[in-house]
## 1
Amino acid sequence: MKQAITKFRVFFSLEKEESWLNRKLAQGWQLFDITGEGIFYHFKKVTNADKIIQFDYRKFANKNDFAEYLQFMTDAGWEHIYGKYNSGTQYFISNRDQNLELFSDASSLLEREKRIRKGIYGSLSFLVPVYVILFMNSTDLSVLWHPQQEFLTPGLWEKTGNEFWRAFFFELPFALMRILGHLVIPIMLIVIIVIYFNSYRRMQRYQKSVV
């Protein structure tokens, strides 16, 4: 029987991510690590699934402040299962029978959302100049309607039958990487826009509840 599994997921909403992780937990799979810049989720098999996962969002200037924060959360009954001092999202778990809530009202959720927005702006101020400097000459949207230009095997498109398919599938991973290289900036911009507007909608909802 498998004791650990890995799932690939991309989330633009903390609420959807939290809900998914708790569904996995109810099935007996508890999160213990995340890799690949937050897209590969690693789970371990557990016998006690009567727990709940909740998120906080905090970045710390140093590891000592982070350690003090974790100790405070531990004293409050939460077990930290993933998150680094500068990663932002902090993942906590507790037993359901403790009836703990990291955020018990709209005001506290609004404050978390403000920290998330601050984190987004901080990341953008660093990432956008880096991507512009490194990749400003690599974006070429023509690959979307002329992807064959990224297949560099000589004479590929003149080949036929099995010879063509062998050459095509051999070249395909390299062509996809070249295509992705051209589209890095547009993809990043789309991700940033989606994250921003999801955050904006949540803040609007929390603000209405506070009022």
## 2
Amino acid sequence: MTEVELSTNTVEKKPSLFGMVFSPNEQFERIRERPVIWIPFIIVTLIGLAATIIGTLGIDSSAQLNELGFTGDEAAAMEMSMKVGTIIFGFFLAPITVLFSTIIYFAIAKIAKSQVTFKKMLSLNIFIYFIAGIGQLINTAIIAAINGDLNTMTMLTSLNSFVGAGGALGGILNSFEIFGIWSTVLSALGLHKVAGLSKTASWTIAIVIFIISVIFLAVTGAANEMFEGMNQF
């Protein structure tokens, strides 16, 4: 097969979500030449929804509702409303996350004078989110299967699963999680392959965004600890 034929075959193939696991560079090449949106978008949305449903159905909020004064049918109705609301939110979480990250990366790429299109950047972020979504689904399913605590933010694949810290430290340790780090690496590779940014710029952007997420989770963990402390009084 000639080099031209090989190149043509590569261009004709659509990127594969599952190919992101074993051959991400090949998928990035395909996204650059032939970005796809809708089917992968639907799949990652359903993955996020599945994780939300499993997590929501596995949480028992009756004790908290009783503390707030809800009992009997009142508590059951309130809990059902909370679960339905959470599942609805879970349906929109993946699309909102993907669109938000796409806007950020696209703006950064344009500042860096990249010629990448919004469609290619959207396709890239959908494929990267697939890895994070699979991680969330696996963690939630395992925690539910072993009757673990789904109320916590701790993922089994994070450092905090070994430490069990709370507050800001817990948030920081939760940030160092296998699928999250994997997504960060893919973001750097994708920005280089799809957006055409230099390796240095791609890795710098990915690492800076990861650091921002660490800070956000640390602040969130500290806030949760503070509110829990206030509720005890």
